[in-house]
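step=encode ok
step=design start
structure_in=
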């Protein structure tokens, strides 16, 4: 694992020379409140959209978050890292089941000039997103998580107790 600065982290680059290095995925950080629209269109926050567009990313893969009732919005450059993360999060399940959990609900989205994109109903249902409900976009580095705001606050209280 190589960590030379937040924007230079890319685990796929270890052991490769500069010509063979894969393009590093964009780094996405921060917590941004939003709401789930009645027509099931989301607006990708401009802070994330700017970083993605500067990196030449125009689409995101949206799927279920492992072990959480949230969604993951992942650039293609971070997809392999997400798959490794899924295998490490669900070690008791056979690899196929962990992949099925994520891959069966994989959805590719493209946003318009205003950052709007459609979210599949089954994914919205999984994350318990209801019309006009508050949501949070949580940038975790290589991808963004989409949480129902109430659920994220509950989990954050648990995390805060676990990590003093």
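sequence_out=
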């Amino acid at each position: 694992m190589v960590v030379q600065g937040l924007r230079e982290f890319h685990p796929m680059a270890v052991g490769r020379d500069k010509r063979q290095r894969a393009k590093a995925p964009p780094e996405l950080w921060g917590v941004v409140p939003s709401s789930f629209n009645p027509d099931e269109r989301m607006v990708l926050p401009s802070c994330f959209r700017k970083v993605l567009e500067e990196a030449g990313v125009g689409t995101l893969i949206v799927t279920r978050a492992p072990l959480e009732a949230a969604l993951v919005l992942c650039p293609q450059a971070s997809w392999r890292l997400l798959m490794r993360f899924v295998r490490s999060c669900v070690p008791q399940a056979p690899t196929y089941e962990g992949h099925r959990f994520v891959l069966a609900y994989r959805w590719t989205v493209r946003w318009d000039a205003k950052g709007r994109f459609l979210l599949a109903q089954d994914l919205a249902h999984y994350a318990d997103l209801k019309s006009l409900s508050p949501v949070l976009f949580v940038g975790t580095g290589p991808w963004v998580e989409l949480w129902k705001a109430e659920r994220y606050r509950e989990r954050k209280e648990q995390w805060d107790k676990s990590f003093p």
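step=design ok
step=annotate ok -> The first strand starts at residue 28 and ends at 35.
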